[in-house]
Amino acid sequence: MAKQMRYSLYLSGILVLSFVNDARTAEHSIARRWNEALLAAVRKDFARPTVHARNLFHASIALYDLWAIFDEKAETYLLGKTVGGFNCGFDGISVPDDLDQAYTEAMSYAAYNLLVGRFSESPGIGVSLARFDALMDSLGLDTTFQSVDYSSGSPAALGNHMARCVIDFGLQDGANERQRYQNRFYTSFNPALIATTPGNPKIIDPNFWQPLAFADGNFVDQSGNALPGEALPFLGAEWGKVVPFALSRDDLTIHERGGYEYWGYHDPGPPPHLDTGRAGAQARHRYRSSYREASEEFKWGFALVSVWSAHLDPSDGIVWDISPASLGNSGALPGSFEEYRDFYKLFEGGDTGAGYEVNPHTGQPYVAQIVPRADYARVLAEFWADGPDSETPPGHWFSILNYVSDHPLSTKRFRGAGARLDAIEWDVKAYFALGGAVHDAAIAAWGLKGWYDYVRPISAIRWMADAGQSSDPERPRFHQAGLPLIDGYIELVDHDDVLAGEDAEHVGKVKLYAWRGPGEIVNPASDVAGVGWILAENWWPYQRPNFITPPFAGYVSGHSTFSRAAAEVMGLLTGDEFFPGGLGEFSAAKKDFLVFEAGPSVDLTLQWATYRDAADQTSLSRIWGGIHPPADDIPGRIIGERVGIDAFRLAEGYFGSPDTAVRISRVGELPENFELEQNAPNPFNSSTSISFSLPHSALTELTIFNTLSQRVVTLLEGVRHPGTYVLTWDGRNHTGELLPTGVYFSRLRFGDRIQTRKLLLLR
């Protein structure tokens, strides 16, 4: 089934909203209508997350600036400004009498011209252009009007001028749009893996990314478009040098390889690498000093990907409660290898999230939803993979934003406070903030992908399988870089094994208890591959047989970075980390959702209490889907969190919000010996509160956790005093409820540093 984005939001188990995007466009603002047209075009284009994050942001610039130019408080971003060395001239325009009509004309001409240009070589240009033309026709606008002379006060001409500025800005922003976003310097270290043949015999170093190929070149991308060529090149390896939104030089590390600079923002350092025992293969980068120390982490992470693929058989009898009563609220992210092992459940699947006792918006417990674990994992992998007819991860979050905006419980108050915003003001501000966040997330994640050039699971698992097993020197096929043996999941083939082969040619090889792969599926409408013992050399991600894995390196996870960044923006924008009514849902009908095999076996609904829960679910989906190990995931979440907060804070500065505007994204470093000043006693209570003082207004976040490592509240805004910035907690959660007496832990992030402390709350 071609997947569509159907969202439903429930309150106390009662359906209150269900819609398909594009269904109610006549009720939406002109900005929303063009955003929907853009998302529809993305669905018909090649699956290029970096390119579409940029498209979404650049379109949001045009829509926002054409609103801001007529607003008394707001400040434009590009119109009349210089950004990234590009100047968009503007001589001023009088405020028209009919402002709504002016918005319609200016935004429509800007969006129309920008989108026609950006999607001119899309495989779906026929459908997309017809959609753009139809929208212009419905508004009574002439698509042949091309004047940019707005001196007469013409909003249409101003829209054309705005489009020209954004288009010209994009031609020099480092994305290499003129050459179809191709890499100029990057080359793959490893030859391609022919995915349909066993093992991985040609790879030079299994620590690095490897192109994938079919002998017949029968590739499709995540949007279902056929792609020419035997092997797909790395998409966006040099994206780190694209002009960002809120990313700053303080966030940047510049690396060099082959005479070319690779720019990495929020660089977390290298991922774990496997000690292959090949000295010559370890010399591509200069950060190779910790090979042996990280080798066990490498093997554990990719082994976990294999073990989780054993969760994908709906007939295994294992059922889970997938409601927020049991899942979500995962708490603090791991910071060490030991913490990774505790955070991810190797055998059961999932993470440490224990859910929520009650829905804070209703005061009632969340209703349990018991379904096969395999159906949950399979739907999760497909839903967040952004497969056929979807919008890629950045567009996915724009769809979620639109869904939240449409909900009757959404107040459309900026940060959840103040007066209600009209539809167009809400939309342009929301798109601008979210667009800046996903654009920066793409730059940060792909800049690191290009530099660290990290291997994907299909390459790593197959190479380690070829090497052998690394657990027991006394058993066959021992190799220090082989797969670790795990009873019931990773074992050796013996002579009595059905996998031994007619001439015992496979005896001693590594076998996996895992998803059996696309070869077991003849009819995707009725067949389920299931789980069983397979030769590890034939391991396959839970993906379509002609897609396999995205064509770019793994570290860091783009899904994790995009999703956490977007989740932070959504929580800040709405003033509530929870979905409207405390619950967001996506329904997948029995046997009518999965694309490359039948399923799910039951009706089920993905559920999220908070935006962060949805983002965390995205990250887990990529492990079950066989696309990322944990090492790719957590750094992406951490970077995304910083990117989202920075982007939102910079965006709101342009809005001119009188009480919350902060026109800085980062202020210098704190002294190394700085200690927080505690301004109230500890223990404390709601009358005394507890405060944390900083010497200046650095990027700051105060998160409070309970003893189960569950996040109970996050505070981002403090009070400025001369020379200090003070964050205060009064012992209440995000809904204002005073928490029970007991021990809590604070995590204060300021700049790039984190400080934690134990707190005792008394009544």
Structural description of this entry:
The model is unreliable at 1-24, 285-289 and 658-680 (pLDDT under 50). The longest helix has 30 residues, at 423-452. By secondary structure, the chain is of the alpha+beta class. It contains 14 helices and 25 strands. The chain has a 4-stranded antiparallel sheet, with no helix packed on it. Strands 21-20-24-25 form a 4-stranded antiparallel sheet, with no helix packed on it. Strands 13-14-15 form a 3-stranded antiparallel sheet. It is 31% helix and 15% strand. It has helices at 30-43, 49-68, 99-118, 125-138, 155-170, 291-308, 337-343, 373-385, 392-406, 423-452, 457-467, 558-574, 611-624, 630-655; strands at residues 6-11, 14-20, 82-83, 86-87, 193-194, 212-213, 219-220, 226-227, 252-257, 260-265, 319-321, 370-372, 490-492, 510-515, 531-535, 584-588, 604-608, 677-678, 690-694, 700-705, 711-715, 719-721, 724-729, 742-750, 753-761. A hairpin with a 2-residue loop joins β1 (6-11) and β2. α1 runs antiparallel to α9 (392-406), α9 (392-406) packs parallel to α12 (558-574) and α12 packs parallel to α14 (630-655).
